[in-house]
Amino acid sequence: MLRFLFSFVAVAAGALLLLNGILAPLTPKEGMPEMRDVLLYGAAPLALMALGILFTDKGVLRLLYTLVMVAAIFGLIYVGLMLVF
Question: What is the pLDDT of residues 7-29, one digit of tens each?
Fold first, then answer.
C-alpha cells in the first residue's frame, strides 16, 4: 500500500509541476526559458514520473503512468518546437 501511495504521489506531483511549467515559465510568450526553469519544470517532473513508474506493482497502473509520462514528453516537445519556430 505504501508503494502505491508513493508512486501515485510521485506521478501526480510530476504531472502538476509539469503543467505549472507549461502554463507559465516554459511558454514562448514569457521569452526564452532559463536553464533553471527547464530543469525544474521539464526534467524534474519526468524524473518524478519515472520514480513513480518504478515503484508501481500493478501492470495496469504502470501502463497508465507510462501513458501519462509519454503525454508529458510530447507536451515538452510541443513547447520546445513552439520556442524554435
Answer: 999 999 999 999 998 888 877 77
